[in-house]
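About this split. The held-out portion is used to measure sequence recovery: a designer receives only the structure tokens and must propose an amino acid at every position. Recovery is the fraction of positions where the proposal matches the reference. Here is one held-out target exactly as it appears in the evaluation file.
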């Protein structure tokens, strides 16, 4: 059997001299591209190659790619292989993809771009996080950036571009969430009087907020609510709407049914002018769904009228999303089971349900009952 040399030499004529190059085989037995020995004679070239072979360096190490090269095409649905696979498994919403892409371009590439991807260590990532904090980014914003980089580095490790994932030891920062002080019963009653005209500029925005308070639906879900999904005893929530992406699946991908009272159904029904209309809340009587700006503007005016001004709303976190916090808390206070609460709100985890719960311990009347029983004396 003929012995197969580990390398093959061949001359290559340059401008003024002839230099010997060599070719060898990779681990799969495939012939690799030629590499210069820098030698002008075949004997010297062979000795050079034998020395490389003895040291195990005959196959040149691949030049590590930079993070900039690795990140080329990431978070672009047309070019990102990770997204192509992810969209078949657990699709990301277009808004989420755009958010990740913005994170990459504005905050990740500027710091890591010129580094070799295998040079990114846990310490370097921690230095990046510290810099973000010094630049004034809060922990919640930094956590989103960390999540973006984690996905990318995990994929780099899977592709064996790096020996280990430096993000495995990076933990989320403690997020100091803004405290939400939900509306009290008397404030809600002021906001929804028997005669809506006393507080609201239009009937549509009055019903919009009432629906949000009673169902905990997200703003995008209410804007995207279609008349065909309103039943006499419940609402079938299955889509959401945004100006940029139009009608799209829900944030959690799962539809849900939310029970409603007969009174709320009657108020919603008055907005349905004919069966051909797709959206319940329309902008100026046209065919397009109501705008967020109009909802924000008229809702703010209503809060002003009941004595809750801009500064107090900001302090208490009383934005439109507040209604999800309000209903979540109200249902738990009424001893509705956590599972049933999640079926209504669409929350997937217990931690999220707890996040939306804002109890005022002064309302815990059962505590008073226990105290009274403890203090009772035998007569």
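Reference sequence for scoring:
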């Amino acid at each position: 059997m003929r012995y197969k040399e580990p390398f093959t030499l061949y001359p290559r004529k340059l401008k003024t001299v002839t230099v010997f190059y060599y070719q060898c085989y990779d681990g799969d037995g495939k012939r690799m591209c030629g590499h210069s020995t820098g030698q002008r004679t075949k004997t010297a070239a062979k000795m050079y190659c034998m020395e490389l072979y003895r040291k195990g360096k005959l196959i040149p190490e691949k030049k590590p790619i930079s993070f900039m090269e690795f990140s080329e095409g990431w978070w672009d649905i047309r070019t990102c292989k990770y997204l192509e696979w992810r969209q078949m498994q657990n699709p990301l919403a277009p808004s989420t993809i755009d958010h990740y892409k913005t994170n990459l371009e504005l905050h990740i590439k500027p710091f890591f771009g010129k580094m070799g991807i295998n040079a990114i260590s846990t310490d370097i990532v921690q230095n990046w996080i510290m810099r973000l904090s010094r630049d004034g980014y809060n922990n919640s914003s930094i956590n989103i950036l960390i999540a973006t980089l984690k996905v990318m580095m995990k994929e780099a490790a899977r592709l064996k571009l790096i020996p280990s994932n430096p993000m495995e030891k990076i933990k989320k920062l403690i997020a100091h969430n803004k405290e939400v002080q939900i509306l009290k019963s008397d404030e809600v009653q002021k906001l929804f009087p028997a005669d809506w005209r006393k507080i609201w500029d239009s009937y549509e925005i009055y019903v919009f907020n009432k629906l949000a308070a009673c169902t905990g639906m997200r703003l995008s879900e209410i804007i995207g609510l279609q008349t065909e999904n309103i039943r006499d005893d419940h609402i079938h929530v299955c889509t959401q709407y945004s100006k940029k992406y139009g009608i799209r699946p829900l944030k959690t991908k799962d539809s849900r049914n939310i029970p409603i009272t007969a009174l709320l159904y009657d108020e919603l029904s008055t907005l349905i002018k004919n069966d051909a209309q797709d959206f319940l809340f329309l902008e100026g009587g046209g065919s397009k769904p109501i705008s967020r700006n109009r909802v924000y503007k008229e809702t703010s005016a209503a809060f002003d009228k009941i004595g809750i001004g801009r500064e107090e709303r900001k302090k208490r976190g009383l934005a439109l999303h507040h209604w999800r916090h309000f209903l979540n808390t109200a249902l738990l206070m009424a001893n509705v089971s956590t599972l049933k609460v999640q079926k209504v709100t669409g929350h997937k985890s217990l931690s999220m349900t707890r996040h939306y719960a804002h109890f005022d311990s002064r309302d815990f009347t059962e505590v008073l009952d226990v105290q009274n029983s403890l203090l009772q004396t035998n007569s």
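Annotator remark: The longest strand covers residues 7-13.
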